[in-house]
Amino acid sequence: MTDPLKDLLQRWRHEPSAAPNFNAGVWARIDQAGTQPAVATVIPFRLLLPLAASLTLIASVAAGVSAGLSVTRSQTAERMATSYARTIDPILKASTDHVHPQP
Amino acid sequence: MKTLLPCLLIAVLASVTSFGLTRWIAAQRAPATEMAWLRKEFSLTAAQADAIEKLHARYGPVCDEHCARVMATQQRLAGLERGTPAHAEASAEMARLTQICAESTRGHLEAVAALMDPRQGARYLELIGAKVASHTHTEPLGLR
User: Fold this and answer.
1) CA B75, CA B79: separation in Å to the nearest integer?
2) Euclidean distance between CA atoms A71 and A60, whole angstroms
């Protein structure tokens, strides 16, 4: 005795209908991919290293200039504030004149 | 890795060089006088700078007179023996003079600050007040 399910499976055939506009859809996607460049082609790989090096150099110079300005500004402010305080404070003035007598 | 090390070295060198050059250029362009510094540091207008200069000119002789009295008392103190009534008297005179000078300086600083923009005036009192208060052992000006 044969299994009826097995016979049924052997006789079963599936014939799917063609998807509408399948062919046109595939070509449309191919065309679209051709017009949108990938990220790697915006910045060619061979330029990535020089670009990174240049950016590092610019950042280093900017950091140096910024630190130089900041240090000089604070040192100037400290020096000038002390010097200015001596011109308006008799006690400071007296101690300075005492240490460095005026001619 | 072969290119990374030279790149980093060049970056460090560029940073150090730009730091040094900036310091040198900034030092060349630093204000020459206290008044020029004051004008720049506290963003004074021409009118404010003019008024402050006049205030300083008026205060100058007062400051000089106080300075002369302090120096004379200091010299007197130096010539006196500790523990003697004369030394005690000179010490008391010195304390009195210090108090007078501190009040006079405080008054001048507050008058100058009042001529500035309020925010700059507060910064002026904080910065200069700390310098003059450090020897009189009083609280910093403007922070009362």
Assistant:
1) 6
2) 16
Comparing CB atoms, the residue among B8, B18, B66 nearest residue A90 is B66
DSSP-derived letter for residue B33 is S
Q: Is the dihedral of CA B28, B30, B36, B40 positive or negative?
A: positive
Place of tokens 């900036």: B22
Reported ipTM: 0.76
Please check whether residue B71 touches A, CB under 8 A: yes
pTM for the predicted model, two decimal places: 0.65
pLDDT of residue B140: 39
What is the tens place of the pLDDT at every residue in A7-38? 888 888 888 888 888 888 999 988 888 776 66
Q: Does the beta carbon of B41 lie under 8 angstroms from any beta carbon of chain A?
A: yes
With CB atoms and an 8 Å threshold, state whether B63 touches A88: yes
Contacts of A54 in chain B (CB under 8 A): none
